[in-house]
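fold-stage: in
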Amino acid sequence: KQGEEEVASHHEAAFPIAVVASGVWERHPQVGELILAHLHRKCPYSVPHYPPMTEGTSLEEYQRILGYRVDDSGVEGQDSFLKRMSGMIRLYAAIIQLRWPYGAKPGPGPHGLNHGWRWLAQMLNMEPLADVTATLLFDFLEVCGHALMKQYQGQFWKLLMFIHEQYFPRIQVITSAGQMGSVMRLKQFLEGSLRSRQISPPKGYLTSEFWRY
């Protein structure tokens, strides 16, 4: 709920929420698994997974499975839907790179960056969806790109080059004129990162300086 409401409206909120979630997860692994399960249920793209429509499923129920809010007034608009999915993906991208700094265990957090690498690889193995894929790839890379760059170095740049040269054109093919905003944001991010060979920490990221106060 924090992801789809608070983070969706204030992107920087992802980091303090994520570091607390990571601390709870580390101390109580079963609670962490519940957090992840609820995230996957509300945002299947965090798996990532594009649920197919199965026989016997009504359109209304299928829209719910995809993550849309459906009530008596109908299905929520696409902008509202994408904003909520964006918030949850941003929260997930923050959780995998942060850990509670006062824990006793050394090493990575309970759900670390390797899950971010897996998420990216699985996304790129699926056919893109109009509007959704460009939006969520940009959100994920803006939040987690710096951490992935530091962790995977040359392999990460190869992956970013693959997205730019091979996967991004597939997104463009399925994108209509009214959906170009998310595509252009992703394009600018990819081109700027590859040109400078650098990704800055995301705005609001909790550095070690934060914990001194």
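fold-stage: in (second)
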Amino acid sequence: QICLSLVKLLFYLAHSPLGSIVLLDFQPRQFVMVDGNLKVTDMDDASTEELSCKEDNDCTLDFPTKSFPLKCSVVGKCEGINEKKNLFNAYRYFFTYLLPHSAPPALRPLLSDILNATGDLRYGINETLRAFEKVLHLYKSGLYLQKRPLLLKDYISLKGFRTVEGEDYKCWPSYSHLGCLLSIHSAEEAAAICNSHLQCQSFIVTQHRTWTGRPLASFQSSWTDLIPDTNAVVYIKRSASSGERL
């Protein structure tokens, strides 16, 4: 969410009515999340000036660990230097820390492609935004899910119930530090996740949703202490419930 919001912001800056705008003091502290969108807190160090040049050799974009040769345009400006400077700063301050984590395994290669392409400046801001929107579409639609055996048949579902909240086993990346709370596309995906956790015996699908509209599921190491909840469904492994009365 943070990276996508940042890319949308940089897309606007690259195509603003004032021309391509560069953030000269590009640091994480210069941004804040407001209603799920990244905002710049200080525009004092923003500029529309692009580096003047006479030849391509005048257009090297230098960073502490990398340098990029750019083209000198016919009007004597280094082509796209503001856009590329913003994009590489997004890569080194945000993408490298946030993109490699938390995504479903099937989407990680696509995020690695974005990371590598922006790190080498092979992508401009237009290509970067398209790549992020493709990943978001796959994530929201569930198209990233690989065909696998149907596992939900191995669970008993009880509508209108959930387990008593409390500390349970933890997983990564959980939305709760008290247990294992993950976003899912469907109960079938939740069953696959539960099967992949040795501790998991049940999971609860709630009506709480993430910014992408995906429901949250709480994964549990037991299924006892059920209480009524009209907005939840608890799924219990048949193997865990065998010999017990529901």
